[in-house]
Each structure stands twice: as C-alpha cells, then as structure tokens.
Design a protein that fits this description.
- The radius of gyration is 19 Å and the shape is globular.
- By secondary structure, the protein is of the alpha/beta class.
- The protein has a domain at about 45-120 and about 200-205 and about 230-300: Rossmann fold (3-Layer(aba) Sandwich).
- It has nine helices and nine strands.
- Bound molecules: adenosine-5'-triphosphate and magnesium ion (MG).
- Magnesium ion (MG) binds near residues 86, 87 and 202.
Length: about 300
C-alpha cells in the first residue's frame, strides 16, 4: 500500500510539474479568433506583462507592478535575490496561477473561440521530475500522451526531441541509469516534444557541475539559434546569465519589482572566446552591481 501511495504521489507531482499551459488557465480576452503569426526574430513583443502584481492568499506580496515586454527571438534571463518572485512570474506567464492585478498579453498568439490565448509554450522546471518506471522515450512522450496522442503517432516527435537533446541512444534507458545532466536533458526534451516556440526555464542547470552546465549552456544556445525560440530563463548565476542572454532583467528583493534591464550586446554564436573576453567580464561586473543594489531594495526574503 505504502508503495502504491508513493506511486500515486509521484504521478500527481509529475503531472503538476509538467503541466502544460492550457487555454483555460489564462484569463479570457474579448478578442476575435486570430491566426498564429510565425515567431519572427525582429523586435516584436510576443509576451506583454502589464502591471502584474501577485499577492498570495496568505498575504505574501510576491510581485509588484511588473511591466515587461519579451520580444520574439530574445534570450531573456531573470535574475534577482531568492524569494523575489522569479518562479512566480514564470508560472504566471505559463498560465499556472493568476495575477492579482495587471495582465499578460500575447500579441502574436492564436486565440481560441472563447478568447483564451494559446501560446506555444514549453516549461522546464528546476527538478527533472522524471517517472522512474518509464523509459526515457516514454517520459518524453508523456505530454503528448496526456494530450491524447497515440504512442505510435508520437514516435517521430519524440525521436526528434531526443535527437535535439543528444539522447537518441538512450531512448530505452530508465532514469536511474542516467546522470544528472542526462536527466535534465530528458526534462528539456519533454518540454520540446510539443515543438514550442517559447521556452520558460526555471533554474534548469542549477544542480549540475560546472562542466556539465557549460556543455548544456552551449547546447541550449545552439538550439535557440537554430530553432528561433524565445527563451525566458531564470538563474542565480551572473556568469550563466551573461553568457546566454541577449538581455538580463534584474529584479528587486520581495516584492519583486523590475530594477534593471541590461542588453548584452555581444554577437552569437558565443563560445569560450566570449567567456574570456573583457566584454564578458565587464558585463558580469555590471550585472553583479545591479543585483547588489536590487537586493538591498525590497522587504528581504522572508
Ligand atoms: N504558493 C505560494 N503561497 C504563498 N507564498 C508563496 C507561494 N509560492 C511562493 N510564495 C512566496 O512568494 C515569494 C516569491 O517566491 P518565488 O518562488 O516566486 O521566488 P523566487 O524568486 O523564485 O525564489 P528562488 O530564487 O529562491 O527560487 C516568496 O516569498 C515565497 O515564499
Ligand atoms: Mg524560484
């Protein structure tokens, strides 16, 4: 029984952790049904966060009047002190929870007949949260399965996601046979299997060693450039944020407000030469200073 209970808990946790944003989770808007625009790489907002405030039921004021446009094709990192509302903001963007005030708008998204936006989102959580009794293939297949796609019809998509993340050879492996970095890749593959245009990533590489993290950073940048994604990435690492991002948004201590918006004007593809350049060092110093003064603002963590 105890084992059964654990399995049930795992399934429930898993479903929560991979929950794909649904149209129902977004507030309805009185807009006509529109065709989706292809995501272009021009400076065109595809997520408009307008005056978003979030106060939890217990009174915690997590976010205060966030105004932020995310443009198509950007790689935006959110940095800020622990507890400043980064995960809260990411979840609100994904439609996992509702804002207490303000709204999140999707200028280029498709809307359903009821006026709910249906953005192409993939969410990568900090913990890989894989189902231990399912193979890599079946873990990646799960979002499609939950969407009613039969296993045989999902084969090409799952294979594509596994190939993108360098896991094709491990399709039949079980999570216990994988390293931490490989589990994280499975988690990313699972977010990619629905071919999203926008990736929301909440400290995906925080638990990894430096070498694996660097490798996954490079792989992610490569895919981002190749696929034309828009990425919103949460990290505590200044170095990682500067290496990856076209733009870094710095948030104050709780309640999270926007404090700085720093463009990282360095060419892609980025590589070790960038990591060792004076530009990189200067950007890191600048983001670090911004983070220090932002951390001094706000009420503190808890
Ligand atoms: N479901 C919830 N109910 C009540 N308070 C919450 C809930 N989720 C988060 N909080 C609170 O809201 C604030 C922001 O939390 P959040 O997880 O968004 O911060 P964060 O910036 O992601 O922190 P970290 O960097 O440590 O991951 C914190 O004070 C947290 O305790
Ligand atoms: Mg967080």
């Amino acid at each position: 029984m105890a084992r059964e209970g654990n399995v049930v808990n795992l399934v429930e946790n898993f479903k929560t952790s991979i929950v794909m944003p649904t149209a129902q989770s977004f507030p309805a808007k009185t807009v006509p049904v529109m065709e989706s625009d292809a995501v272009a790489t021009s400076k065109r907002p595809i997520i408009r966060i307008d005056g978003v405030t979030k106060t939890y039921r217990n009174g915690t004021n997590a976010l205060e009047k966030i105004d932020l446009d995310i443009n198509a094709g950007e790689f935006v990192s959110l940095v800020g002190p622990s507890g400043c509302g980064k995960s809260t903001l990411l979840r609100l963007i994904a439609g996992l929870g509702t804002a207490s005030a303000g709204e999140i708008d999707w200028p280029t998204s498709t809307y359903d007949a009821k006026g709910h936006p249906m953005p192409d989102l993939g969410f990568v959580f900090q913990e890989p949260t894989l189902m231990p009794w399912r193979t890599v293939f079946d873990n990646v297949y799960l979002p499609l399965k939950l969407g009613g796609v039969k296993r045989k019809d999902a084969h090409d998509r799952v294979t594509e996601a596994l190939e993108m993340t360098g896991l094709a050879r491990f399709a039949a492996a079980y999570p216990r046979q994988l390293s931490g970095g490989m589990k994280m890749r499975v988690s990313i593959a699972r977010a990619l299997v629905k071919r999203p245009k926008i990736l929301l990533m909440d400290e995906p590489f925080a638990a990894l060693d430096e070498i694996t993290r660097t490798k996954l950073n490079n792989d992610l940048l490569h895919l981002w450039e190749q696929q034309g994604w828009t990425v919103v990435f949460v990290t505590h690492s200044i170095y990682e944020s500067v290496y990856l991002s076209s733009r870094i948004v710095v948030m104050t201590g709780r309640p999270g407000r926007l404090s700085d918006d720093i463009e990282i004007d360095a060419a892609y593809p980025r590589n070790e030469a960038f990591r060792t350049s004076s530009d990189y060092g200067e950007y890191c110093t600048r983001v670090s200073a911004a983070l220090h003064s932002a951390s001094a603002a706000g009420d503190g963590e808890h």
